[in-house]
Amino acid sequence: MADPKGFLTTPRQDWPRRPVEERARDWAEVHVPGALLPIISKQADRCMDCGIPFCHDACPLGNLIPEWNDLVSREDWRAAADRLHATNNFPEFTGRLCPAPCEAGCVLAINQPAVTIKNVECAIADRAWEEGFAPPRPPERLSGKTVAVIGSGPTGLAAAQQLTQAGHTVAVYERDDRLGGLMRYGIPSFKMEKRHLERRLEQMRAEGTKFRTSTAVGRDIGADELRTRHDAVVLATGATAWRELPVPGRELTGIHQAMEYLPLANRVREGDLETSPLSAAGQHVVIVGGGDTGADCLGTAVREGAASVTQLDIYALPDAERDEDTEPWPTYPMRIYRLSAAHEEARDLRTAPVADADARLFAASTLRFDGDAQGRVRSLHLVEVDTRRHPMEGTGRTLPADLVLLALGFSGPDREDGLVDQLGLEMEPRGTIARDSGFATNVPGVFAAGDAARGQSLIVWAIAEGRAVAAAVDRYLTGSARLPAPIGPYDRPMAV
């Protein structure tokens, strides 16, 4: 500890965001550029000598948080970068996109605001790139073994980097025209600019990882042919099979899945399109679903110039503080009121005058959609529900809706490419790929990791899965355990 009394004398200070009126007019990241480094050393000083750092258990990567907090407080950025990269391949991603379960597990959070762990992590990652502390690390020699990784999201990229650095020849197959999975076409640039992704991909190319874009395994290349080419295969395709909303009027034009809407907006930013064919400009937009994907749609619609945007959350308005009876420390409180950058923008710009808070209507369930004579959606009918999701009499209302976005989550891997059926994979009842305690599927030499096998989860769990499956594949190829495995396939977040 650089300052034993830091947590007593220094209040929490988060990375400040740019003014709403400014950032809602562009697509740059929401935080004030350069405003993190001047405050971060004092924030790292708030890390306590707590004896048992529960932040380690709250983070599936096992990040060495107290160690790099101490190093940052002493401004030893090189050593901090080394400790951070020892457990996390992509801290510049998690430092921007992870909801920080580590902070929920911070001992200081028992009765004070937690250490700004996520901000410290992001500061280390960015400083590492600026100072050249994250060079490519190609292997000293090759093993002669080849591995195919299917999917270039955080799980696939983490697995590929670990296996490449271990000396195996790795080819990553991505069905989209660009790499990154949801980080490329799902996450808006105001949350993470794509330059961070491009920089890491260049590092991986320099290390020796091969990338094959616009290649859908199962369609463009058969699963059996891929198995013949490679000694092992890692399935990291993600959970892209979206959940539906089977209510009357769903067939109307103007009702789309979130992952039909967000990729088009991202393609505009990539320069592929001048405008999105699903642009929210001038439209009354209703987003069904209260999670992060819905918030991404919200921030995107605001920037596109929507006439109004309302987000529906089927859960009741949560409290400002955690409920210690149902979600005690150090578990991650799911039901707590959080104000994301997108919700802050919607609140200040008053995009939804009828909302309960910011742009959200809570305890709201969709009953039906109504359309015009041309079959286009024009309104959404909803009702308030109780804690058991039962409709409450006399609470119905109607919202204008020209564009409806369904952000209801994902159930498992998309099976349209035929990969699952060609391999003959066993599936879990919930729609994910079945695997054993060593991440292996029922097909010899084929492993599964990430959301495709775990189910929809957080980016930090995706990276942990990638590192763990890489260790399993390396053991399969070499007969020895050389790579770290932070989690097992059946591990789950801390819960009561």
TrEMBL record:
Extract the Gene3D superfamilies matched here: Alpha-helical ferredoxin, FAD/NAD(P)-binding domain
| An individual GO BP term | glutamate biosynthetic process
What EC number(s) does its UniProt record assign?
1.4.1.13
Which molecular function terms from Gene Ontology are attached?
glutamate synthase (NADPH) activity; iron-sulfur cluster binding; metal ion binding; oxidoreductase activity, acting on the CH-NH2 group of donors, NAD or NADP as acceptor
Q: Which residues form a coiled coil?
A: none
Superkingdom: Bacteria
Transmembrane portions of the chain: none
Keywords in alphabetical order? Amino-acid biosynthesis, Glutamate biosynthesis, Iron, Iron-sulfur, Metal-binding, Oxidoreductase
UniProt entry tagged with the keyword Iron: yes
The chain positions of domain 4Fe-4S ferredoxin-type read 38-69
Q: What is this protein called?
A: Glutamate synthase
